[in-house]
Structure formats: structure tokens, C-alpha cells
Amino acid sequence: QVQVVESGGGLVQPGGSLRLSCEFSGDTFSLYVMNWYRQASGKERELVAGSTDGGASAVYVDSLKGRFTISRDHANHMVYLQMNGLTPEDTAVYYCNAYGLRDRNTYWGQGTQVIVST
Q: What is the per-residue pLDDT for 57?
């Protein structure tokens, strides 16, 4: 059973940084595209960044490019989202998502709350 578990959220002041972590378990890590999504209150969930085992990665939201970075640790089955220069607009629940390239199933974590505020 695939599981993804996020951690690292919290309260941070504007301009600060956080690193979110996502731990994957339950199957062959290399067969999954790992993504970060976020959902702000009252808004739809949006895809923030994604990473494949082959090394391809991208941040998909224009306003986050240059501030957010996704990285993947194959040995430890971890995915990270480094967030710098945080603004109140980045306040959201951040979700880790695993998409199976073999079975095309999608697995979600429980989410981790990020609050950017003074």
C-alpha cells in the first residue's frame, strides 16, 4: 500500500523559508512521479511542482519560479519542497502526491499547513 506523508509546515514570517518533506513508502519509488500541490482557503487545489525519478523536475506556477524548488532523494524515498521568500499568498495546505507510472493510480498525503504571517 503506497503511502505519502508530509511534514515541515508551520508558521513563518513573510520573507522567510520553509522546507517541506514527503516520505514515500509501499512500492518502487522510481515508478512514481512525485508532485507537490497546494490549496489555499476557498481556492482550488493547484499543482506547484513535480519530479520524476529520471531527474526531470519543474515548478509549474509562474509566481513561484525562482522561489520554490523541488528535489528528490531516491535513496531515502523522499521529496522536498524548498520554499524561499514566502509571502502571505503562499499560505495554504501543501499536499504531496504520488502518481504511479505503471498503474496510473494517485496517492495523496494528509497535507501540511503553511501559514505566512506576521
A: 86
